[in-house]
Amino acid sequence: MSAHSDSAAPAPVRLADYRPTDYLIDTVDLDFRLDATATRVVSRLRLRPNPAGRAGAPLVLDGGGLKPLRASLDNLPLDLAAVATPDRLTIAEPPQRPFTLEVETELDPSSNTQLEGLYRSNGTFCTQCEAEGFRRITYYLDRPDVMAVFTTRVEASKEEAPILLSNGNPVESGASGPGRHYAIWHDPHPKPCYLFALVGGDLGSIEEDFTTTSGRKVKLAIHVEKGKEHRAHYAMESLVHAMRWDEFVYGREYDLDVFNIVAVSDFTMGAMENKGLNIFNDKYILAIAETATDADYAHIESVVAHEYFHNWTGNRITCRDWFQLCLKEGLTVYRDQEFSGDQRSRAVQRISDVRALRAAQFPEDAGPLAHNVRPDTYCEINNFYTATIYEKGAEIIRMLRALIGHDAYHAGMALYFERFDGKAATIEDFLGCFAESSGRDLGDFARWYAQAGTPRVHVTGVFDAQAKTYTLRLSQSTPPTPGQTEKKPLPMPIRIGLIGRDGAEIPLVQDHAHNWREEKFGVFELAGPERTIVFKDVPTPPVASVNRRFSAAVILEQELSEDDLLLLMAHDSDPFNKWQAAQSLASRLMIRSTAAIRAGEMPEFSDLFALALADALEHYETDPAFAAQMAALPTENDLARDIGTDVDPEAIFLARKALRDGVGRLLSQRLLTLYDKLQSDAPYSPDAASAGRRALRNACLDLYAAGNHSDGAEIALSQFQRATNMTDKMGALSVLSRLPTPAREKAMESFYRAHCDEPLIIDKWFSLQATIPEPDTLSRVKRLTKVHAFNIATPNRVYALIGAFANGNPYCFNDVSGEGYQFVADLALQADGVNPQVAARLLSAFRSWRNLEAGRRALAEQALRKVLETTKLSPDLRDIAQRALA
Ligand code: TRP
Ligand code: ZN
What we know:
By secondary structure, the protein is of the alpha+beta class. The chain contains 29 helices and 32 strands. About 55% of the residues are buried. Tryptophan (TRP) binds near residues 128, 130, 271 and 273.
């Protein structure tokens, strides 16, 4: 939202209050005359009373700080002063038949720093309308259930903006007066205004032809800053793969003659799925070996796919209201995760998706900002583009599919596409399709959308040597969350395997299997508070591998001994649980060390763990990227979450460091050998196998250096100097960044000199320095906010420096002095004057403040209170501060 005010936050919007609009908009004709500071917009709306609305009701259109110039109804001028304010246009008694409303507004895109509505990024005119940005362009019924056919004419200086784009297909273009030209775009698919987009600028383009399965010829184009065209090819490849995948897996084809992507450098989020004209944060488009890491490539592939997949899940079928946001976001994240799994290693994709879920969504669900996947109420919708809506939303679809099976899932999706195409739908509409395709009552399953908090599943197992049975008892409970004390059980799929002491899989035999999926896939349903499963013909005491592939999005509490975990780590045929066993064992060791350190004792170490880890790394051949995941020990934030309350981030940091240093020392030789063996002289290729080898090699160096500082620094420095791709360069620099050597500062300097012209690389440089776990990092970060390359108005810079410090450096952010909290709160306030959405995201770093030990908790609270006491807060920042403190 835009307007800053001294008054309290706006009244909350409630799902229960939904009612259809009183008027519908059939067509929208827009005419833009682009100008840096005085753009003129004429909007001509064909309206009619909504048969589902209240007859004779006034027409109230939303505006967002608009400057109206004139308005007319059926060509008769209206008295502007009587009908329009900057935030609203009201027609008290509109005709009860179709009518036309024409309004002209004037905008200043150059002074728009909120990056919502029409703004300029590096001179390019562009728009961002989701969720409620269209009202900052013209008066409208700015809500997703109002779907209209848009025709857009854009006129601009030919020199300043040779490229003029909008939604749909190009219809006409030509000259219009001295130095000016125009283009007309028509989008035949009715859509809500949040999917509107317009771009005008002097951009460089790459193009490609695509023919859909049914023979439609589509011109694909990606437009980037001039001179960066050669960095757009990987994004184009990803787009083509995504288009083919959606045809093949979901039977969905593209539906226009052109598909345009524009990359801009000022963008609040990742990207936006505007119909036929996706607009991207350029960090999710631009990549060549010298500038982007393997992780950047993977992100590009998944974000390009995500936005493309929205064409069906989001655009053709949209949301009835913003409470249904997960209808498009959860489903589309699920689809992009599956796509990436098919392009790369399924196991590694699952592990990194779960890592992300645990890192971002679990803390949200366990803290004061917890909310349902479908909220019942919100004050500021922009604050609900959260890990819960996106990532937990995706997990719900994955669980649904595991419960009803592949065939019923795809039959349900086909039904959904058929029944709701061109409509604005709800979660009930969506679930209804799967109830029908599976013949199952999904009433209980729907609770996943209505109940916040992460369920805990407790598992115990008893072996009966005489009867040769193994009895597994599962029980579930969900802790209370703000405003929701009573929690009911949720239906969840738990994938199970049994492993013998010899490491071999034991077949699952039951007297009465509940359904064929249990027998065939080992997927068991836990629907009520508890369930007991008796397995027969179990020869020896097994170890249960529970929640394989992370089939249910829960916290698993299973009593496993260290021997059990070592067995799973070595033998589990499910790669996710093999990885999980290593994580659990490492986490257990480090949590015990954390307690020891707080008690003034020595941290723990386990040779057995380290040796098992070395074995796993050396067996990397089938999937080196998986081995690299094994090497990555739980993060400090992972440990803080597992500890839960009375968290001491400094003790956690020391405990983790002790384990890493110990592993690095004990495994020195083996790590070095592996590092050398993985060396490759082949030219860079971003494919998954090559990326996996680089990831593993860099992980070996990282662990080695943790245990061998001076030697490690030397190897890292030499890798840094020789690297011909950004992955190896950053791998080396990030190892150096954790070593307090003079080589570090020199490497940082030379990196800056080499890349100071490239903002996306300077972001990496900012982030690395912000995450150095040393006491003087805060003063370093403060210094960096003063360098020329930093700009509070550019979201990528703010996330790279301040976001990385607040979320990626728990040791320094949580410094006992409280200065880390003060700094981040101050920066959020500073950002709030420029871009409230960015400010609100920064402040969300406080989401786990209540779990801290008493001293830090008091200091964090103080920082949050100071924010709330500030006058002129945006609704966005106020909403986060208020909920965090509630
Ligand atoms: N719909 C976008 C996506 O997930 C998200 C998005 C892009 C967004 N820009 C935004 C959400 C600005 C809110 C505000 O693909
Ligand atoms: Zn999305």
